[in-house]
Amino acid sequence: QVQLVESGGGLVQPGGPLRLPCAASGFGFSSYLMNWYRQPPGKEREFVAYITSAGGSTNYADSVKGRFTISRDNAKNTVVLQMNNLKPEDTAVYYCNVPRLSLYGPGTQVTVSS
Fold first, then answer.
1. Count H helices, E strands: the chain?
2. Which residues in 23-41 are b (16+ Cβ under 10 Å) and which e?
3. d(CA 103, CA 94)
C-alpha cells in the first residue's frame, strides 16, 4: 500500500523545538524528491521545504529558513522536519508529500502557544 504517515505533532511553547518524522511505504522512496507542506487554520496549504532524492539539495520557504531543517534516511524510508525556535504563526497541520505521485499523508497538528 502506497502511503505516507506523519507523526510528532503536538502543543509546544514559543521558542521550543519539535521533530516531525514522515514514514513512507509502498513505493521506491529513495527515488523521489520529498516535500513538507503546512496548512494554517483558515488558510491555504503552503510549501515549507523540500529535499531531493539523495538528500543532496534542500530548499525552504523564507518564513522557516534558519529555523527548520529537512533531512531523510533512505534506508529507513523516512523524511524528517526538525523545527526549532517555533513561533505561534507556525501553528498548522503539517503534511509530507511526494509530488511525482500526487501523494500526501493525513497530516499532523502542530500548535505553538503559551
1. 0, 11
2. bbeebebeebebbbbbeee
3. 14
**Structure confidence by residue, pLDDT tens digits, 42-71:** 999 999 999 999 999 999 999 999 999 999
Q: Looking at residue 28, what is its pLDDT?
A: 96
Render pLDDT for 10-37 as a digit per residue (tens, 0 to 9).
999 999 999 999 999 999 999 999 999 9
Task: Work out the number of other CB atoms within 10 angstroms of the CB of residue 65.
Answer: 10
Tell me the DSSP string of 39-79: E-TTS--EEEEEE-TTS--EEE-TTTTTTEEEEEETTTTEE
